[in-house]
Amino acid sequence: MNRTSDFREKEVINIKDGRRLGFVGDVEINLQSGRIEAIVIPGGGRLLGLIGRENECVIPWEKIKKIGEDIILVEMDDRFIRKHFE
């Protein structure tokens, strides 16, 4: 069993192309069902990370394929990757 705080230490990797997407910044929880709905990867900072932040990326729980000790493997399609990580 994992705690939500444990997710912040895990790197997210897309198994379709091996791309490193970043580290989990937060999780979305459905308060009525008590289930995790998605993990959130914060967007990169602008201006050398000093001012502002880009949009965060929300990865639905059903896209997570495996949660390991150090990484989370997800399976995301190319449209999502281009939109959020390029």
Automatic annotation (TrEMBL):
<dbReference type="InterPro" id="IPR011033">
    <property type="entry name" value="PRC_barrel-like_sf"/>
</dbReference>
<protein>
    <submittedName>
        <fullName>YlmC/YmxH family sporulation protein</fullName>
    </submittedName>
</protein>
<feature type="domain" description="PRC-barrel">
    <location>
        <begin position="3"/>
        <end position="75"/>
    </location>
</feature>
<dbReference type="InterPro" id="IPR027275">
    <property type="entry name" value="PRC-brl_dom"/>
</dbReference>
<dbReference type="Pfam" id="PF05239">
    <property type="entry name" value="PRC"/>
</dbReference>
<dbReference type="InterPro" id="IPR014238">
    <property type="entry name" value="Spore_YlmC/YmxH"/>
</dbReference>
